[in-house]
Protein: Redox-sensing transcriptional repressor Rex
Organism: Enterococcus pallens ATCC BAA-351
Amino acid sequence: MDHLIEKPNLSKATTKRLSLYLRCLKELQKEGVQRIKSSEFSQLTHVGSATIRRDFSQLGELGRSGYGYDVNYLISVFSSILDTIEEKRIALIGCGNLGQALVNNNFRRNDNLNIVCAFDNDPEKIGLIFNGVEVYSMDRLDDVLKKEKVTVAISTVPSHQSQAAVEKIVNNGVTAILSFAPDPIKVPEGVTVHYIDLTTELQTLIYFDELAQSQRG
């Protein structure tokens, strides 16, 4: 099988599906499954077979006709694309219920992703420690980010506060931001922002669920 080039230029939608594929493949590996066909993988991931084959084709020759795909090989390929070999030190901005849930989980499935500090404006939260991570005042952002060598940030602050918070983060050298506020944030060139809008995700889920139910009926 041909090896793919590192970090291919994939769309955001394809990259999100690769993450889903990798998670499902690791579950198959735990169950002792050694190979799988696209039709079987489609049932597991709820992604169409044609979409799976198209996604895989962008990454080289990953399978053989009539044989399917080697699970261990796919895991190695997708891991090489998605997993970082360097530790990414992450700052959490906003330590409400969502922020606390994120820091308590702290990417336990990936040793190279670590939330190392958290920030909030609430005096009752400042100084608290969640899962070994201390919550600092936003006034401490400059010196703590520099000391902790943070390059990635997760923002859970509301939309009306997110622009100001992100500007402070970016001014301290952070180049990758995951925002849970749906409104767009202005950032300079070279800074990447991804948005997670839970309402949109839920509406999309319900749409496809209702569509599937109507087709069954």
